[in-house]
Amino acid sequence: MEHLEHKNCLNCGEKLVGKFCVECGQKADTHRISAKHFLLHDLLHGFWHLDKGIFYTLKQTFTRPGYAALDYISGKRIRFYNVFYLTLITLGLNLLISHFLEQYEPTVELEGDGEIIYNFINNNIKYIILCFIPLFALNGFMIFRRTKLNYAEHMIIGGIALLGCIVAALFFNLLSLALIRFHETKFWSYIDDVENIVHLCFPAWVYFQVTRRKYKIPGFVWRILLFYFLFILELIIAFVLGIIIVNDGNFEGKIYM
Questions:
Q1: What residues contact 211, with CB distance under 8 A and at least 6 apart?
Q2: What is the pTM of this model?
């Protein structure tokens, strides 16, 4: 392999000292690009490190989500894949699989405002779900004051909480697809029940780990209940406002099914 001889970083021009540029972090040992190296090193190496970051982040999300969020906030970030990018990836996969599962679900006839609500949710589901993160962050910032974390840091916690819920939904959707293969759709209702429990409990588990050293159990319990109450209230307000806006201010609040 032919190496490029240089005393300065080829990326930013900084004088090289050691194996990496102190200014931008690029490797000092830069080589010519060849077909063999491109296929066997650059592509596979990049894919492996991407994979490793994703798997590590997913493992941390499901084994110690709150502690992982605190690790990331404290600066231990090199092993983590970007939580928000990973959320977008898993959300996209989830919506794709959910779209496929829709054809096996019973259809419900909607009329009037019910149809408006359904279309609004269906057309904006990605944005609605992603809005959970700033809402989680806002409520966590207001309620769990003893953590002394700012709003942006609470966004990390909210991001991990939502990531766990979305990955769980992806798992249950894949399980539903597997049941379709064996014509066992009768178990779907049980899967939905378990999934709902996971979605309900996971954010509480995240915030319990984050605040474990700040509050005793009774103090945490009433705060997390307030957290959920505010979250539901905010969703209702945002939902009604969204419907009114998209329907040009004409919403009677009646749903027919």
A1: 66, 144, 146, 147, 220, 223
A2: 0.75
